Amino acid sequence: MTGFEISRLDFRAEAVRDWAASNALRTNWPVVYVLDGRSDEARSSEVEVYVGETLNAQARLRQHLESRTKSAMRSVRVIVDEEFNKSAALDLESFLIRHFAGDGHFRVANRNDGVVDAAYFDRAKYQESFEAIFEALRAEGLFTRDIAAIENDDLFKLSPFKALTAEQTEAVEGIMRVVAERLLTQEDCTVVVRGAPGTGKTIVGVFLMKLIADLGAGDAVDQNAENESPLSSLFSSEDRVAYTGLDVGFVIPQQSLRRSVQEVFRRTRGLSASQVMSPFTAAEHTGTFDVLLVDEAHRLNRRASQPSGPLNKQFGEINQKLFGEDDFTKTQLDWVTAKSRIRILLLDERQSVMPADLPRDDVMAVVAQAQREDSYFELQTQMRVRGGRDYVEHVRGLLDVSTPMSTLEARSRIRATDYEIRFFDDIRALHDAIRARDREYGLSRLVAGYAWEWKSKNDASAMDIEIDGYGLQWNRTAVDWITSAGAIDQVGSIHTVQGYDLNYAGVIIGNDLKMDPTTGRLVGVRESYFDKRGKQNNRLLGIEYSDDDLGRYIADIYGVLLTRGVRGTYLYVSDPGLREYLQRTL
Fold first, then answer.
1. Domain range for residue 483?
2. I want to staple 383 with a disulfide (CB 3.0 to 4.6 A). Which of 94, 156, 200, 460 is the partner?
């Protein structure tokens, strides 16, 4: 199905009128159009695109010409196909919005009321033409990369223009209802969004930031009867007034993920990279946030040794400023609470991987409070791993250090899927397989637990991970490592991959996690775990971490690594007992 036509015309009233007069389909047929140029809201250096669909192209384009925000656009391309129906047009509109946002060449001027991802008759047949339409627009300079390259980029994966699942849409609607009510009544509130790896917590957080920004600004011309976006009703609600003029921030504890989201915000209308900050930056913010979102909230710190001396000093200074004294019991969650009227915490207690992270009991107390106050939302649908929720829960069950292996095997089940799990006895073969998957699909990387010293940090020629005479180095950058040059020949750690997707993950499980043949339990091995901050005792709080505590952190790290791969996970396991157990159960 490739019988489409793309008409390009200057975005002027007379050009639109003359174009529409020559064909009846241009006033009474489902079409998709793309405006490009510099709108009144664009910065001087930015070119924007706006994608829309309509049953009456002439009337809709006339509306845009009368709009202050769209009238400055330069040109319009209208895509007409005699076999299109309304559903196909909505689907193409969503496809183009998502790929424009992921390409990053233009800034997308659409508001974020949710893109349509609905099933309809013969959808697969219609979608065959989308790639041809994409390539035709690419030939005219509207895209700079092919579809595969765009879809492997963080700009696409972390874009606010995502087709939410029904579960995510329901959660967003519920969150916005709670937030609007509390803003109008000026009540303090904590909202919790909880979900396992791959359920889309970060996507929901980014989506909410854009949605709140658009509700506070909006474009009156977009209030039209044709609008069938999933969340369009929010823009006509009387509660919309609550979002005007808000001070909104987005806290991300991990540096690498924070940088990636900042780049997305930098390229998104209504958002700013400065809104994405560390817990320290948020705590130093002048004034109080109306709404403060926190992604990976389980990675907020308690008072413990920080990565640098200046941060240790700053932690105490912030406590003094916010609470009148350097109270060692105060955590970064207390900072977030003190600096915001409404906070939205995106969390998963099983992804706390460092002793400095919030204690699991503290996280669960916040969850319980939100449940009591009807501000708790849970995401269960697996959006990343093709093995689905069954695979994620299975892996988490197998890595429960508190339970004997025999019990775990008896209660753990996984249904057959097209998810690819392979074990390797040769580290070279594992690396070769990951290279092959990277050539085929892109974004395939080696990752490992912190079972080897980071020698190359001080000696660029040193090998960090040496197995059977084969040498590998840890990631050479802590920021955006996955997409960095040379990443395919390096090994990422938990600090560079948590929060990201890979197509294939080659997971190296070192001797920091073994199976005790006597007790039949997984155990962490302190002397084989080389993350200094990951195993040091907390002198400030007088906490000593037992081997059992350490084992839980190490097992949870591997739980994160084993749930990064979208298409598959390849494993090399150092401990023979653990390797045999995982081969038998996976």
1. 388-585
2. 200
- Check residue 359 and report its DSSP letter: P
DSSP 8-class letter at 543: B
8 Å CB contact between 310 and 325 = no
Q: What is the pTM of this model?
A: 0.90
Domain boundary residue, one of 327, 360, 379: 379
Percent of the chain topping pLDDT 70: 93
Residues 425 and 444 in one domain: yes
Could you tell me if residue 156 is inside a domain? Answer: no
Q: Which of 219, 201, 203 is CA-nearest to residue 269?
A: 219
The structure tokens 């909230």 sit at: 297
The count of domains in the chain is 3
**N residues, the chain:** 586
Q: What are the backbone angles phi and psi of residue 189, rounded to the nearest 5°?
A: -160, 145
Cβ–Cβ contacts within 10 Å for residue 287, how many?
Answer: 7
| Structural domain includes residue 41 | yes
Kindly state the tokens that stand for 398: 């197998």
Do residues 371 and 394 both lie within one domain? no
For residue 134, being part of any structural domain is answered with yes
Q: Are 443 and 482 in contact (CB under 8 A)?
A: yes
Q: Which runs of E-coded beta strand occur in 211-330?
A: 248-251, 276-277, 289-294
Assign 138 a pLDDT band (cuts: 50, 70, 90).
Answer: very high
> Whole-number mean pLDDT of the chain?
90
